[in-house]
């Protein structure tokens, strides 16, 4: 755990100023931090590992996302710590230290965009840039009690961002409030051809996804149902199980589901298949991107990361045709379920942030359950917003809204309309004196 004035969030502090500073610019007056995966001209992009930094030259160009943010009037104050090679959702870094979770200092901050989330949560910056392949914006947002947006895949440029797995890589961002998040989104999200924002007609709130939460399941589930019903009417709520829907509407799931039907931990077997397929595809692309460098340099990698990286590089690809077919089937099925006027509501993560230095087996079990939720937006390419509910029992609690691919502005509009009601219902539902929003 890193401590100090910056919570161990920063790799390097420096100022990047906007090309012009005028009050009419949309991000004028805001400060931001940049995950050390984005290129900045003249600086080495470290990718979370000293050996990577040592063996790579300074970047020759700056990420278009960073340039757009600066052009909109924001000031960057530096680059943030991340998990090595973006291959973890814990937020622990054996070389640079683990940024301190401002919401729960005895627990991990979440990764791989750990420093960016901590910088926002600790009020060191107004917003921060991160990346999300398998959950690297959504998880640290949930663990640090802030907002985190994973946009629709392919909607925001990943140019001059080190790839992890291009099939799933996205650029996302964090903020403490929806107003700031929306200001950044208005700069970085492309304008749709039709600027009309629809009103949502239905919310899928699948009970089986919330059963993964354990003790918080019933209360969080009830708060969400009450909030949606109060704001949009009882007819807007649909509680059908997502696992059953996926099993019935994604035929290729049947080829793999028997391997995931005997889990003792709370799980949804069909979503475990979705997670497995996504991780296999991600691993294959990671291997193609980075195996040569790893095999040549033999970098010093921290615990957990080392095993994961070398397992990926040594792995066989498996039935790739089936994986790609399932990915297409899943996106089509989920599109048919949510449509362009619906929202899927799920937990962001399967429980409280793990404690620092948690035992490896328990951590891997938590990770597996997390990916059964994270892979829903991951494999489909849909947009997802993690929303903080507050702090309960000393740990942050969050939920997520998911919308169809390209419906990012619709997603933000729904969040803005629902959030005040969500806060009201959460205060009613939480009676403990340490609850806060």
Automatic annotation (TrEMBL):
Residues 22-412 form the Amidase domain. InterPro entries: Amidase_CS, Amidase_dom, AS_sf. GO terms for molecular function: hydrolase activity, acting on carbon-nitrogen (but not peptide) bonds, in linear amides. Pfam families: Amidase (PF01425). It comes from the Eukaryota. PROSITE patterns: AMIDASES. PANTHER family: AMIDASE 1. Belongs to the amidase family. This is Amidase domain-containing protein.
């Amino acid at each position: 755990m890193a401590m100090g004035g910056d919570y161990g969030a920063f790799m390097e502090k420096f100022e990047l100023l906007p090309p012009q500073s005028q009050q009419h610019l949309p991000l004028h007056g805001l400060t931001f931090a940049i995950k050390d995966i984005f290129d900045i001209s003249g600086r080495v992009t470290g990718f979370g590992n000293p050996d990577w930094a040592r063996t790579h030259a300074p970047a020759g160009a700056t990420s278009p996302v960073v340039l757009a943010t600066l052009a909109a009037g924001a000031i960057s104050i530096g680059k943030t710590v991340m998990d090595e090679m973006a291959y973890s959702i814990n937020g622990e870094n054996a070389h640079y230290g683990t940024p301190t979770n401002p919401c729960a200092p005895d627990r991990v901050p979440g990764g791989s965009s750990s420093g960016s989330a901590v910088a926002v949560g600790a009020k060191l910056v107004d917003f921060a840039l991160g990346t999300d392949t398998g959950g690297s914006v959504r998880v640290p947002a949930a663990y640090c009690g802030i907002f985190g947006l994973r946009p629709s895949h392919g909607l925001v440029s990943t140019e001059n961002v080190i790839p992890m797995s291009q099939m799933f890589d996205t650029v996302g961002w964090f903020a403490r409030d929806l107003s700031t998040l929306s200001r950044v989104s208005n700069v970085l999200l492309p304008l749709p051809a039709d600027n009309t924002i629809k009103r949502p007609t239905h919310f899928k709130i699948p009970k089986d996804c919330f059963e993964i939460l354990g003790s918080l399941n019933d209360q969080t589930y009830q708060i969400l149902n009450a909030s949606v019903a109060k704001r949009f009417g009882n007819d807007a709520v649909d509680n059908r199980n997502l696992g059953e829907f996926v099993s019935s509407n994604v035929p290729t799931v049947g080829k793999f589901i028997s391997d995931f039907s005997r889990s003792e931990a709370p799980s949804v077997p069909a979503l475990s298949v979705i997670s497995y397929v996504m991780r296999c595809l991600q691993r294959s692309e990671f291997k193609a991107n980075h195996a040569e460098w790893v095999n040549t340099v033999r970098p010093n990698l921290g615990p957990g990361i080392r095993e994961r990286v070398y397992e990926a590089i040594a792995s066989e690809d498996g039935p790739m045709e089936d994986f790609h077919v399932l990915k297409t089937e899943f996106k089509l099925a989920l599109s048919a379920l949510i449509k362009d006027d619906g929202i899927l509501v799920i937990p962001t993560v399967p429980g409280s942030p793990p404690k620092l230095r948690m035992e490896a087996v328990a951590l891997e079990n938590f990770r597996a359950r997390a990916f059964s939720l994270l892979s829903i937006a991951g494999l489909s390419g849909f947009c997802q917003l993690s929303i903080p509910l507050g702090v309960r029992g000393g740990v942050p609690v969050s939920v997520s809204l998911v919308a169809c691919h390209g419906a990012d502005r619709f997603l933000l509009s729904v969040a803005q309309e629902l959030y005040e009601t969500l806060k009201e219902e959460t205060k009613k539902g939480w009676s403990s004196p340490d609850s806060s929003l």
